[in-house]
């Protein structure tokens, strides 16, 4: 297996990318890792399964996505997607510009035949310890009912094969659980998904229930999904910050915090996005993982773990087979 990584992408590149790749290369000796960047000096020489590919250009976070991938054809992101198309890599990971990664995937790797719109699908931690796959969270702000129906199918396959969820429950993000609730989009999507026997559809899901694990796959348009994602990240950060303030406020709360430290550390770990890898771009014709922009080495390591499962479980082929029916 060969996994390529964008050494230029992310807030802490290239140091965090290299750190994560070194951890991964030491852990999975049977996998070849290709760092794509503009400085070969970042690559440790001691590892036999670590390679380097030169890229003279770099796509910046504030670059306009489509223009950037068309003009900067020798950027690390474009080269990574081209390597997938050419069969030179089995998966590609980037923590860079999300829109540019989607554009590069579409333009240079290609889309699975039959998929109208690929989706960005991060994993949300839930209170019951299960992992929730949410798609789409921003790849396509505007969507049609057919797109949400396709998200449900692709999400089900990924949840089963990569997250290990047997017969994944699929929910549709809505303002109420009743069947007739929502916009015209969600009503039409509800009807389409409910008619498919291959999808275990559990109906509408309200945002307030998401972290309690009512489903394993949550389907929504990119606009609503992005708001849900940003709100969840903000609330989690605020709660953990406020809790820390209270624990440190007096000597007896500090003592209580010391007694509860193992439980608090476990809770923080479960809520940490770095523990859950990255977000797959489902619908692209080869495995692409979008790592969080502020990923550190640990997050990149888990993104690699996710990419390996993506490849080894033949998720792209399974999606292709489903859409060919």
UniProtKB/TrEMBL annotation:
Q: A GO molecular-function term, please?
A: phosphate:acyl-[acyl carrier protein] acyltransferase activity
Q: Which Pfam families match?
A: FA_synthesis (PF02504)
Which InterPro entries does its entry note? FA_synthesis, Phospholipid_synth_PlsX-like
Q: Which UniProt keywords apply?
A: Acyltransferase, Cytoplasm, Lipid biosynthesis, Lipid metabolism, Phospholipid biosynthesis, Phospholipid metabolism, Transferase
Q: State the protein's name.
A: Phosphate acyltransferase
Main localisation: cytoplasm
Under the heading NCBIfam families, the entry gives: plsX
Q: What does this protein do?
A: Catalyzes the reversible formation of acyl-phosphate (acyl-PO(4)) from acyl-[acyl-carrier-protein] (acyl-ACP). This enzyme utilizes acyl-ACP as fatty acyl donor, but not acyl-CoA.
In its UniProt entry, the species of origin is given as Seinonella peptonophila
**Known partners and oligomeric status:** Homodimer. Probably interacts with PlsY.
Localization recorded for this chain is: Cytoplasm
**Top EC class, one word:** transferase
Protein family (similarity comment): Belongs to the PlsX family.
On the tree of life, the source organism's domain of life is: Bacteria
Q: In which pathway does it act?
A: Lipid metabolism; phospholipid metabolism
According to UniProt, the reaction catalysed is: a fatty acyl-[ACP] + phosphate = an acyl phosphate + holo-[ACP]
List the taxonomic lineage.
Bacteria, Bacillati, Bacillota, Bacilli, Bacillales
GO biological process terms held by the UniProt record: fatty acid biosynthetic process; phospholipid biosynthetic process
Which EC numbers characterise this protein's activity in its record? Answer: 2.3.1.274
């Amino acid at each position: 297996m060969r996994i390529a990584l964008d050494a230029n992408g992310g807030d802490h590149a290239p140091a965090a990318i290299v750190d994560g790749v070194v951890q991964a290369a030491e852990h999975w000796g049977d996998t070849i890792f290709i760092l794509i960047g503009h400085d070969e000096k970042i690559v440790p020489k001691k590892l036999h399964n670590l390679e380097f590919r030169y890229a003279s250009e770099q796509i910046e976070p504030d670059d306009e996505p489509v223009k950037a991938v068309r003009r900067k054809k020798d950027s690390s992101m474009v080269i990574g997607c081209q390597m997938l198309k050419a069969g030179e890599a089995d998966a590609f990971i980037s923590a860079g510009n999300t829109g540019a990664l989607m554009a590069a995937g579409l333009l240079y790797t290609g889309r699975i035949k039959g998929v109208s719109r690929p989706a960005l699908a991060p994993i949300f931690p839930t209170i019951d310890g299960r992992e929730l796959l949410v798609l789409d969270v921003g790849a396509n702000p505007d969507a049609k009912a057919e797109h949400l129906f396709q998200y449900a199918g692709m999400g089900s396959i990924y949840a089963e094969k990569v997250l290990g969820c047997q017969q994944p429950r699929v929910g549709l993000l809505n303002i109420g659980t009743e069947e007739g609730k929502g916009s015209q989009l969600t009503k039409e999507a509800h009807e389409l998904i409910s008619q498919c026997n291959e999808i275990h559809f559990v109906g509408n899901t309200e945002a307030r229930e998401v972290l309690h694990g009512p489903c394993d796959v949550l389907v929504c348009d990119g606009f609503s999904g992005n708001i849900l994602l940003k709100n969840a990240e903000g609330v989690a950060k605020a709660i953990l910050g406020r809790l820390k303030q209270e624990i440190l406020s007096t000597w007896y709360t500090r003592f209580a915090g010391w007694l509860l430290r193992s439980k608090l550390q476990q809770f923080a770990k479960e809520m940490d996005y770095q523990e859950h890898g990255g977000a797959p771009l489902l619908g692209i014709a080869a495995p692409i993982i979008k790592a969080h922009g502020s990923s550190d080495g640990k997050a990149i390591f888990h993104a690699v773990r996710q990419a390996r499962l993506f490849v080894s479980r033949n998720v792209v082929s399974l999606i292709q087979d489903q859409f060919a029916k």
